[in-house]
Amino acid sequence: MNDWLKNGFFLGLGAAAAGTEKVQSYLDDLVTRGRITPKEAEQFAEELISKGESKEQEWSDASKVRMKKMFKDMGLVTTDDLSRLEEQIAHLETLVNNQNDSTDSKES
After folding, report:
1. What is the pTM of this model?
2. Cβ contacts of residue 27 below 8 Å, gap of 6+?
3. HEC profile of the chain
4. Who's near 31: CB < 8 A, 6+ residues apart?
5. pLDDT tens string 24-83
6. Are 78 and 71 in contact (CB under 8 A)?
């Protein structure tokens, strides 16, 4: 499972790098042919990077939702689930200890 996620990440990273190189090459070609100015090429590249980062965040958020659902379907607990259970256990232990203290003081 972990290897699957890692491979997916590296695949995406490689595709992004290859895409970035192709876009930069295309923009350089447009500048060389005088179709756009270097400033326009830079602005276009920055816009693409910004959109890419936005999409990356969307995909990351969607992946987290899918992973949580998959873990839940598999019956695995999250760290949040574990923390809630630990808090409940601590609360119950306090109640039991208070009950025992109350019983001990009545018997004395």
Report:
1. 0.45
2. 36, 41, 44, 45
3. CHHHHHHHHHHHHHHHHHHHHHHHHHHHHHHHCCCCCHHHHHHHHHHHHHHHHHHHHHHHHHHHHHHHHHHHHCCCCCHHHHHHHHHHHHHHHHHHHHHHHHHHHHHC
4. 37, 38, 41
5. 898 899 999 999 999 999 998 888 888 878 888 888 888 889 988 988 899 988 889 999
6. yes
